[in-house]
Each structure stands twice: as structure tokens, then as C-alpha cells.
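Notes to self after the call with IL:
- keep both proteins in one doc
- input above output, always
- annotate only the second one for now

Protein 1:
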Amino acid sequence: MTAEFDVAIVGSGPAGLTAAVELARTGLSVAVLDEFFRPGGRLLGQLYENPTAPLAERRWDGQEMSRQLTEQARDLHVRILSGVTVWSISEAWRLELSGVPEKSLHARTLLLATGAAERALPLPGWTLPGVITVGAAQTFTNLHRVAIGRRVMVVGIDPLALSVALEMHHAGIDVTGVALPPRSPTSGNLSSPAHAVARLAQAADIAPNRLLRTMARLASGGLQSVAVHALRFDLLRVGGVSVAFRKAVTSIEGNGRVESVTLQSVAPDGKPVGSARRVAVDAVCLSAGLYPLTDLAEVAGCPLVDVPELGGLVPLHGPGLQTPADGLFVAGNITGIEGAKVAIAQGRLAAVSIARGLGRPTPMTPEDAAHEVERARATSPFRFLPKVDAGRKAMSRLWQQAQAAKGGLL
């Protein structure tokens, strides 16, 4: 039996749920599919405060936002299918499914909001039980209320790692520190103190530490070397968590499980200097960034383009989040790694584009929806990629080139 809908959305994160609500309000029939056992995507693990936001907006509770969006969608008769795998997509849009009685689903239009996955960060001992990614730690801490360990070391200094370290600390976990990964071909510039300091500018607004905010602004103002040298001492604590810009975790040790890590001092360029010491821990979180999940876009026949500023391979898409494949749209982190606020705005933009393409009027114009995405980008407390604006411009050029080669606009 094949279920029939106007729009199928793969991914029940902030982009997918927002798009579902907006589309259903126009009277279109909508189905949302996701492999996780409940809707919400990465919203489910998000819990933080932005001290620079208006008082009523300072606390970001992803679970509560997920609950509200899910309730709105269900009230509008959106069918949400959780625990479902989309294993094949064919033209016009037929989705093959597992995990539900219906083995296939047909939709006039398809929106892919599949989000992102975490990059691996291999280092000696990383396969020991007790080593997990920082995103998994966030989910355990904020969604399942499970402590991943009693003493935890975070490896990788970036906005997500800093945020999750603080979340674990506030949950009562002893976070022994946040340090760099070791210098290696796989870690690349992630092992550079200068690179780590530059990343501070992307989380400066949420940093509850004046020194950290100052160093972030020094780095963003072109004074990276000053900031790196200023942070050479282990004096920086953010919300009770030590952040060591001049130390790297060179290995993880243990007999059958994590028991300790080795901390090595490093120079401003990341080269090992001085002595190393061993620190007792029982869990390690690895953070190496995110990349867009594009598998289904490729299966659906959408060309992928390599835009490093957006996180790597992303589906080619236009200003309304349309793709060269007729009736296929994308939204959220599949288009490039950004925060939940941007994903929500993109979900709304995709909904406007889809609804109008299907002949349904919308209260928001495509231009207003696009401006909302830009406003969300400008006010987002997180900037996971430092050159995302350049990446968006690169995508615009690629789209225009593709349209010129095709001899017309979609």
C-alpha cells in the first residue's frame, strides 16, 4: 500500500517541523519521516542561555521548542512518522520505507531536511569504551538525563564543545577541562591554538566569561597571536570549566575502558613543547565539527557541490531552497552547517517556496522569508563555520552558473 501526500519531508528537526507547520496551514497534506524514535532532531539536546539576547529570549530550550512545533504540526493533521528509514527515492516522488506498515509513500513535492552528522576525530585510544562524540554527550545529558561519566575530558575547542561542556557541568558532571586534539593529519587545523582562538568569535556572545569574550574579539579583530599568548596559562575557566588553549590530549588510556588521558603542552602553532602529564578521567568527548548529510539528496538525483565554507559537499540549491531536480527542496543543515534559528527560518522559506509552487497562497512572501533567514543568521548565538557567508555567496554563484548553462531559470 502506498500513502499519498502533497508534501513529504524527510527529517523532523527544526527545519522539517517548521516547514511542516507552515505547509499544513495552507491546506496541503504533509508527512514527516525520521529515523529517530521521536521528532525534534538536534533540538532535543539543545539547552543554553544567550546573555546578549532580550530577557524573554535568553533561554533556549530545544526540547520545549520541539514539543511546541510537534503539537502544532499534529493539530494541523501533519502525519509524523518516527522510527522510519527512507531507503530509496525515485522520481515523482516515491519513497521506499521500512519501520512502518506502509512500505512506500508518494508525494508531489519532497523536502529533505536531513541535517548533519559529526566528523570523526581519531587519536590513540579513541575506540575505548567511554569515548563518545560531543553531540552524543549533549543528547545523553539534556534529553536522557544520563551522566556519561563522573570525570569527563572534552577534546576539541569549538562553539559546540564549549556549550556541551557547560551543559554537562551544570548537570553536575565533573568536566576536568576542554583541550585541543593532538597535531596529526586527521586533526588538521583543529589542533592549532590560533585556530581555536579564532573560533571564539563564533561563540563570544554566549561566553559567560569576560576574558573569553575579550579574547574572542581580539581574535576576530585580527589579533590572534595576542590572544593565543594571553591564553598560554591555565587560568581561563568558563562557567567553572577549564579551557586549555595551549594543551592537547595526545592519547586516551585504559584497560578495557577509559581511565585517563595524556595532556601535552603545545606552542602557538600546535607543536608539542615541554612536559606531558596524565589526568584521570572515566569518559572522553570528541568534537571535530559537523558535515551535511547529503545521501538522500544524491539518491534523489540532486547534484552535490563542494563548498568547504558550508561544511563540505552540499546539494546545489537556489535562493528559494529549490534544487535542479523538479519538486525537490532542501532546508536546514543539509544546505550548510548553521544553528537551529537559521534552520527554522530556512524551513519557513522552503515552505513558502513549496506552497506557492503548488498553487497555494502564503501570508509571507518569498522575499520576506529570505530576509528572515538573513536576520536569523545575523542574530544566531552560534556560528559553527567562520566563513559561512562566503559559502552562501559561493552557492549563489554556482546556482546562477548552473541556470545559465541550462539556458533558463527553474
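Protein 2 (the one to annotate):
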Amino acid sequence: AVIARDHGCVHPGCDRPARWCDVHHVIAWWKGGRTSLHNGVTLCGFHHRLYDDETWRIRFAADHIPESIPPTWVDPNTNPSATPASSPADDYLARRVSGGELSIPGA
């Protein structure tokens, strides 16, 4: 479901496909973060480290799309940016999955 929503690395400007990414816990599991669609994003290995050390942060917009929040040395206003879905069909699927209309076996 995370891959269906994110399509690849969610870091702004990164074009790494989902097959080159890992799922990252937005709130670390050791800090009480759940393994769930609303606490996971796909990040490539390089960008994953930026979020693990909390240089960059992730938040979810009202439509459940992840937004990256840069550190102040990148953007003093820390304006979030989202990586758009790759196609309307993929975006539709991601909305259905995140809205609970579809279930993923074993999830």
C-alpha cells in the first residue's frame, strides 16, 4: 500500500523507483511508531539516512500524501513539498487503499 501511494522515493526531486527504496517509519518504531500506511513512506538508501538522523522530516497532508519538510539551512521557512503521484490511476488506487476501501493480504 505504501508503494502504491508513493511510487518511489518521496524525497523532493528524487526519481528512484520503489524497487530501489525501503519503507521508512515516519515515527520510529522504537519511539512508539506503528507499522502502518499512515506511518510509512518509501525512501531510497541515500535519502533514508537524511530522515533517520532527522535532518529532514515527513508529515502527512490532509489527503494522506507524505510531505517532506526541509531543515532551515535548506529552506528558512521549512516549506513542505510533496512528490506527486505518477498517474491518476495510481493516485486513485492509493486513495482507495489509504481510505480503507481495499485491503492488502497479510498487512
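Annotation: Residues 5 and 107 are 15 Å apart (CA to CA). The first helix runs from residue 2 to 6.
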